[in-house]
Specification:
Helix content: 25-40%
Strand content: 25-35%
Mean pLDDT: 92
CATH class of the largest domain: Alpha Beta
Number of strands: 16
Largest sheet: 5 strands, parallel
Shape: globular
Radius of gyration: 22 Å
CATH topology of the largest domain: TIM Barrel
CATH superfamily of the largest domain: Glycoside hydrolase/deacetylase
Bound molecules: zinc ion
Number of helices: 8
CATH architecture of the largest domain: Alpha-Beta Barrel
Structural class: alpha/beta
Order of helices and strands: EHEEHEHEHEHEHEHEHEEEEEEE
Number of domains: 2
């Protein structure tokens, strides 16, 4: 059983159980699954400071294994200028998610200084990923080891203004995890808790705060092995999913023996929050296959354990489940 949010009101459920006629669809309970595709946990990899070893040792491995990484780029220093072309090439990969680590990594002494640090870095990120529509979200990672003289509220306001979503606080090898085993165990811990886990890196194999390549390879082997249980994702998708899920509501519209209709809404801004949520709806016992339709999207889903699992966009129009077999 997935950890879930019960989206149907208790009142509706009680009413359904009172009806003498057992109309299955009246208790067509729909749950919003905690993580995308009903996975047990979510996991994110982060790589800070545009370190050259990430281009050399990280990007090719992620591409080979089809695992996404979040690259917290500093786009206004000499190091970046020297590697600009290579980052432009790397960013063409769907497994390279670019994020804002400020323009200079020099820190800020007040809110006014934070402005250009965010805006100028965003400008570069938008050019690296020109295919995204506007406005759009990017991830944000605060630079460490430098002055950061803004209040949490000033930071939150600036991030909202620049459409940036904050990542979880930095945690990773070799600072917080001292071996390959300890690094890999972070994935097991996320699965055991059913929560989002993450590992944050600087250099891999070279550069600074270096994680040995062998540790990194062991981690990727682990992620590949548990891929069916873990949603390996980018920071924006994680933030979108959680934000949408926590304010989502489901309204049952129609429930018949061969068709169920419902609506999914959430309070997040649809321009920025456009990631489908994964839902699971209980269907009558004689359903084997279901066509799920929302707007112009239609998919056939096999019923499993009396329920169908499918993706739906909050505010994306009526969702209809029809029995086909
Ligand atoms: Zn940094």
């Amino acid at each position: 059983m997935h950890p879930t949010l019960r989206a149907l009101s208790l009142a509706t459920f009680a009413l359904a159980s009172l009806t003498s006629q057992r109309l299955h669809a009246a208790d067509a309970e729909t749950q919003i699954l905690k993580w995308k595709d009903g996975k047990k946990a979510a996991f994110m990899l982060a790589f800070d400071d545009s370190a050259p070893s990430q281009l050399k040792n990280v990007v090719p491995e992620l591409e080979k294994r089809k695992i996404v990484g979040n690259f917290y780029l500093v786009t206004g220093n000499k190091l970046y200028a020297a590697l600009k072309r290579r980052w432009e090439d790397a960013a063409k990969s769907p497994y390279v998610a670019v994020s804002n680590h400020t323009f200079t990594h020099k820190g800020v002494n007040n809110a006014a200084e934070l402005e250009p640090e965010l805006a100028l870095c965003n400008e570069v990120l938008n050019k690296l990923k020109p295919e995204g529509r506007q406005p759009r979200l990017f991830g944000f990672g605060r630079p460490g080891g430098v002055p950061w003289k803004v209040t949490p509220q000033e930071q939150a306001e600036a991030l909202a203004k620049h459409h940036l979503c904050d990542r979880p606080p930095f945690f990773g090898p070799p600072i917080h995890y001292k071996s390959a085993e300890a690094t890999v165990a972070a994935v097991d811990a996320a699965i055991a808790k059913g929560e989002m886990g993450h590992l944050d890196f600087h250099g891999v194999g070279e550069d600074w705060l270096v994680t040995p390549v062998e540790w990194f390879t062991a981690l990727l082997d682990k992620l590949e092995a548990v891929r069916d249980q873990v949603w390996i994702t980018d920071v924006v998708s994680w933030h979108q999913y959680v934000t949408e899920r926590t304010s989502a509501e489901i309204k049952n519209v129609k429930a018949a023996a061969d068709a169920i209709s419902l609506e999914l809404t959430c309070k997040a801004d649809p321009l920025l929050y456009d990631l489908p949520l994964t839902l699971s709806t209980e269907v009558p016992a004689d359903w084997k296959k279901t066509v799920v339709t929302q707007g112009s999207n239609s998919t056939t889903v096999t019923v499993s354990d009396g329920a169908v699992q499918y993706d739906a966009l909050p505010g994306g129009g009526m969702i209809t489940l029809k029995k086909t077999e």
